Amino acid sequence: MKFEIFSKAKYLVLMNENGEIIEKRNNPALNSPMKRPAVAKECVELKANEVIAPHGSLCFPSYRILKKAGIKMLIANPGEDLRSSNLKEVNMKEVIYSSFLAMRERITEH
Predict the structure, then answer these.
(1) How far is Cα 13 from Cα 110, in angstroms, rounded to an integer?
(2) Phi/psi at 80 (nearest 5 deg)?
(3) Strand pairing report for 50-54 and 72-76
(4) Can you give the C-alpha Rg of the chain in angstroms?
(5) InterPro entries under this entry (predicted)?
(6) How far does CA 55 lie from the centroid of its chain?
(7) Domain ranges in the chain?
(8) pTM for this prediction
(9) Pairing between strand 11-15 and 50-54?
(10) pLDDT tens digits for 18-77?
(11) Which three-class secondary structure state does DSSP give residue 88?
């Protein structure tokens, strides 16, 4: 299973700590004008303890939604395989980068 940025991934996958898939849903971002926040809200609804977000996925609204819910956020590189991923804790540079990327997507894709 490879990581894809929140706004473009086909699915949202909930896994347990052993890496077993518990649930696989269609990505709500694909039908939402607020793509990344739609994924963050879905993660809260699924009662996730931890979210692995590909680089570029955690814009400020998404970050706030997950932080308010007390969900741990880790960053992976898009295209990496889950088993070989080098995860990093989220930081403000990531949130700022993701926010600019989200704005660029809204401007260029509409």
Answers:
(1) 27
(2) -75, 150
(3) parallel
(4) 13
(5) DiNase_FeMo-co_biosyn_sf
(6) 8
(7) 11-108
(8) 0.86
(9) unpaired
(10) 888 898 999 998 888 889 999 999 999 999 999 999 999 999 999 999 999 999 999 998
(11) strand
